[in-house]
Amino acid sequence: QMPELGLLAIGVGLAMIAGNGGIDLSVVAIANLSGIVGGRIASLMYGPESEPLYFVAMFTCITLCTGLICGLINGALVAYARLTPILSTLGTQLLYMGTAVVLTNGAAYRLNYTDEMSYLGSGVVWHIPVPFMVFVFTLAAVGALLKHSIFGVQLFLVGTNQKAAEYAGIPRATVLLITYSLSGFIAAIAGVLIASRTSSVKWDYGSSYLLIAI
Length: 214
Hints:
It contains 10 helices and 4 strands. The chain is mostly helical. It is globular and about 55 Å long.
């Protein structure tokens, strides 16, 4: 479970770096909703048993896209509607959770077990668990983005002094939109690992994860 918690913590951490009370309370809800949407749509397109590789690829793509869309919604509320992050992400948390309940009628959505799907959540390469490798790769990518990109510099400046960053010509709204979008995308990566490990997705999975991630 550590890679899942670590990925969620990265998403929350990005929002915190943005400063001015930045936080993302919807990461767990995004992970669960993304997995549900990915599982339902992918199963309509490919059979998990007859076309497992196509199913896993489609499931992963749809799950990540769903997380990105959810993150964009959070970012738009914080960056353009200028809502307080803790309130806006608390509201979207309830929205995403409620949508997941509607899509599954409150029950767990079972993903047919396949070796390919299980490999993502429980596989081992050179004695290293695949989920841990995904976490380390994501952590390194985010670290490189923050340290070596213009976006990373702008994010830290916005988080340090948002008003001064605006006067310096930094596009505050764009930086915040990208930040919360990344948070949603990374939460969806956690959703892929959760679904792969348990072969199911549920609206309230990992209800204790949020506080641990924060």
